[in-house]
Design brief:
Number of helices: 9
Largest sheet: 4 strands, mixed
Number of strands: 8
Bound molecules: flavin-adenine dinucleotide
Helix content: 40-55%
Order of helices and strands: HHHEEEEEEEEHHHHHH
Length: 323
């Protein structure tokens, strides 16, 4: 919605996008496949990509025809992303990439993966020598292996990259500027309503069930507390959207939204279980127990994906000048 019309976008503001995204999430719409292209790979290409990359990828992303995955984490590199081992070696006309990625959301349905790799050996400056390359996931040498989540879903994968050739025109931004680009990308990832609406449909369904059974004072209190927090998170997230609209990079503000938002999402299923099971068991709507069990099994991942709680608090401590 926010991209320029020349690349298939609608020139809308971040706030207009916010309204639509919020409605999609609140309705539980199936947004997974194009989510990463819309939220971060597209904006990354708009900011750092070549004109040719923008013209090639952005209109297809906007049409929902081209899905992108994030190839950052590796088996021994998550929070400490600068320690990645995937390498890209210079050859005639491009780069040969070797390594593996893990926890890659939706790689099994994505077309491309923006892959963080080392283009120079690690040095004293750990953040130097990293680059982002677009790897076509149907290339020879790419193997994608599913990892089933605790809830039994295939959401993420291992991606093995074995001597994969990537042409020069698939380099995003500047070689060896990968770290700065990744940091800019993560700011898009941390503050949206997806950071506190993952369990929204459960909340709504529980409220409906309680309403049918006549809620107790205890149930009213719990629901009231969650709604109050939700309203505050929404205001904070909207404020970050306004800052993005103004061209700012609200890294600390986005970290606060994600930290508080994911705590909210993680507390919600347990709280709902306590009031729904006691108060409204006979009236529980069909589907609520299933939603509840899914939410309980998925909730631990909320504070891991997109940077863990401890890492976000580290960023905040730095932003406040405490370290
Ligand atoms: C649902 C889901 C989807 C994901 N999708 C993707 C994806 O599409 N692409 C991708 O690249 N990655 C993805 N990830 C991976 C995610 O980014 C990593 O899991 C995350 O960065 C943490 O890395 P790790 O799992 O290696 O844990 P580790 O970094 O090993 O951390 C383990 C624990 O140690 C703590 N810790 C680590 N370092 C410090 C420190 N310096 N100070 C204090 N505490 C610390 C962490 O907070 C954590 O609690 C996904 C993860 C999940 C759960």
């Amino acid at each position: 919605m926010t991209w320029p019309e020349q690349y298939g976008g609608s020139n809308c503001s971040y706030l207009e996008r916010y309204v639509v995204i919020e409605e999609l999430l609140a309705a539980g719409a199936p947004v997974g496949a194009h989510w990463i292209a819309d939220r971060q790979s597209g904006p990354l290409l708009l900011r750092f990509g070549t004109e040719q990359q923008k013209q090639h990828y952005l209109p297809k992303m906007a049409q929902g025809e081209c899905f992108f995955a994030i190839g950052m984490s590796e088996p021994n590199s998550g929070s400490d992303l600068a320690s990645i081992k995937t390498t890209a070696k210079r050859v005639d006309g491009g780069w040969v990439v070797n390594g593996s990625k893990i926890w890659t959301s939706w790689a099994h349905v994505c077309h491309q993966m923006i892959t963080l790799c080392r283009t120079e050996p690690a040095s004293d400056n750990r953040h130097a020598g990293l680059s982002q390359l677009i790897i076509d996931l149907s290339s020879d040498g790419v193997t994608i292996r599913p990892i089933k989540s605790m809830a039994g879903e295939q959401h993420f994968n291992e991606v093995f990259i074995d001597n994969v050739f990537v042409a020069d025109d698939a380099v995003v931004g500047d070689i060896n500027n990968g770290w700065n680009q990744v940091m800019a990308e993560l700011a898009f990832e941390r503050s949206g309503p997806e950071r506190f609406l993952s369990c929204y449909r459960l909340l709504e369904a529980c409220i409906e069930s309680l309403r049918a059974g006549g809620p107790s004072a205890q149930a009213n209190r719990v629901i009231g507390q969650f709604i109050a927090k939700l309203m505050v998170l929404r205001q904070m997230s909207l404020s970050v959207a306004s800052q993005l609209q103004a061209g700012k990079l609200p890294v600390n503000e986005a970290s606060v939204v994600k930290d508080l938002g994911t705590s909210f999402e993680q507390d919600l299923p347990e709280a709902m279980r306590s009031i729904v099971s006691v108060e409204a068991r006979p009236q529980v709507e069909e589907g609520v127990p299933r939603m509840l069990s899914d939410a309980i099994l998925t909730a631990p991942s909320f504070s891991l994906r997109g940077g863990t709680r401890e890492i976000l608090r580290g960023i905040l401590a730095k932003g406040l000048g405490l370290r």
